[in-house]
Amino acid sequence: MDKIVITGGRKLKGEVTVSGAKNSALPIMAAALLSEEESIIENVPDLRDIQTMAKLMRSLGARVLFENGTLAIKPGRTLKTLAPYKLVSTMRASVCVLGPLIGRMGYAEVSLPGGCVIGPRPIDLHLKGLEALGAHIEIQHGYVNARVKKSLRGAEIYLGGSFGSSVLATGNVMMAAVLAQGKSTIENAACEPEVVDLARFLKKMGARITGEGSPRLEIEGVKKLHGAKTAVISDRIEAGTFIMAAAMTGGDVLVKNVEPSHQNALIDKLRQCGVKIEKGKNTIRVRRNGRLKPVDATTLPYPGFPTDLQAQMMALMAVTPGISVITEKIYPDRFMHVSELNRMGSKIFLEGPSAIVHGVKHLSGAPVMASDLRASAALVIAGLVAEGTTEVHRVYHLDRGYEKIEEKLFALGASIHRDRE
Ligand code: EPU
After folding, report:
1. Cα 154 to averaged position of ligand 1 atoms, centre (Å)
2. Same structural domain for residues 227 and 239?
3. How far is the CA of 167 from the centre of ligand 1 (A)?
4. Which of 19, 223, 264, 349 has the smallest set of CB atoms within 10 Å of its CB?
5. Band of residue 115 on the pLDDT scale cut at 50, 70, 90
6. What angle do CA 155, 156, 157 make, to 5 degrees?
């Protein structure tokens, strides 16, 4: 298995271009199933998760071509309706095909995704929304069997759960509602930019949706959708990871192809830490000369501080003099990176859903194990400021969501390479 090898101590300098957002591209790929015509999706990152989704779509009968960041998806007149355990268990976002399959075929058999290293990740809200639209749902042998008798019917749906809104549940239910008869409303809808991007694509396909980006979506069902062309938004989590890496190393980096308004929660925190941030039209310049200052952060649904940047923020706090606290409100168990960061010399103590971080002067390079995608990114950026050499193992997690991260960091002056084994 590959590993990433980093020798710490270099300040990042220069320019880096952010790729398209994985978490936007995945539901948009599923949405393409809603029409029999071909759709074109541009600015798609070449990642393992995208390849997994492409494989699933092919197994459903769609023709999928992926070249130079552009996907061409032609579902055709009929689709198979089975999303097997083998694919869904490797990538939870596969569950996004449920809404489109029910909407178009009236039937779907989708494996339950099961456990996840960042904690329990139920899909009850997805199912509640689809049932409200008239789908009859049974769980049998680890599969969700969803069937619609005549057609889906518009409904009033409340999608709030114990941890607030859900990004993929909102997407799944919205994708089913666009082909339902009549009007649907989704209350407590997720407001994440990826949901807005999905709605934008659905509207290009002929769907009638208003309110995207707010907690209340209104959807007027239509009979049929057509193929459409879109380009996915840039990846705000990848951008945030580079912004933090630049801040931690005391560097000067221009992050390009970024939507600055998506980064407000992170920028607010980093400015409190003493980092200089300048927003351009599609760029963010990050500089730091003085010492980092401690800060507290709590993850929340958008526009709050993203859970997908919690691990990276913890790496930054680990080398910030003083005590910082980070509280995880989306996935209270998403702390697998703590023990690995502590192996690098950080002093992080868990107290329920909060991590108390006592900043240390230096981290020390060590062999560490990535547990999930964002934890891997945190270990990589921790390696950039650690004394000596850090080896990050199990980088297949990283490859699910970061396109060529080692090449991009190398181009910014980091001492980093991938050892292929
Ligand atoms: N939840 C429920 N019931 C549901 C669905 C979710 O209780 O039916 C809970 C979850 O357990 C969690 C909270 O609601 O506590 C929010 O989860 P959400 O459904 O929003 O997560 P998701 O849609 O499955 C997406 C991203 C995740 C990201 C979260 C939160 C994709 C493919 N995944 O997941 O990204 O952490 O939103 O922003 O879009 C990652 O990229 O590393 C990643 C994990």
Report:
1. 25
2. no
3. 6
4. 223
5. low
6. 105
Nearest CA among 326, 36, 24 for reference residue 192: 24
In three-state secondary structure terms, 340 is: helix
Instruction: Tell me: do 125 and 241 sit in the same domain.
Output: no
Distance 393 CA to ligand 1 centre (A): 25
Q: What 3-state class would DSSP assign to 70? A: strand
Report the residue among 116, 121, 159 best suited for mutation to probe ligand 1: largest number of ligand atoms under 8 A from its CB. Answer: 121
User: Is ligand 1 within 6 A of the CB of residue 316?
Assistant: no
Give mean pLDDT, residues 174-180. 98
Across 128-267, the runs of DSSP E, i.e. the strands, are 135-140, 143-148, 156-158, 183-187, 208-210, 216-220, 229-231, 252-256
278-322 pLDDT per residue, tens: 999 999 999 998 999 999 999 999 999 999 999 999 999 999 999
169 lines ligand 1 (CB under 6 A): yes
Expressed as residue numbers, the domain containing 239 is 2-19+234-420
Ranges of beta strands (E only) in 221-366 are: 229-231, 252-256, 276-279, 283-287, 296-298, 323-327, 347-351, 354-358, 363-364
Please check whether residues 122 and 209 belong to one and the same domain.
yes
- Please answer whether residues 104 and 179 qualify as being in contact, where contact means their C-beta atoms are separated by less than 8 angstroms: yes
Shared-domain flag, residues 363 and 377: yes
Q: Do 4 and 369 form a contact (C-beta atoms < 8 A)?
A: no
Tell me the whole-structure pTM to 2 decimals. 0.97
CB-ligand 1 contact for 121 (6 Å cutoff):
yes
Residues 6+ apart with CB under 8 A from 259: 193, 233, 234, 236, 282
Same domain, 50 and 170: yes
pLDDT for 217-239, tens place per residue? 999 999 999 999 999 999 999 99
Nearest ligand 1 atom to alpha carbon 127: 8
| Ligand 1 atom showing the smallest separation from residue 331 Cα | 15
CA of 166 to the centre of ligand 1 (A): 6
Please identify every residue annotated as catalytic: 116
Which residue bears the tokens 């400021």? Answer: 385
Q: What are phi and psi of 184, to 5 degrees?
A: -120, 150
pLDDT at 120 over 90: no
Q: Which CATH number does the domain housing residue 337 bear?
A: 3.65.10.10
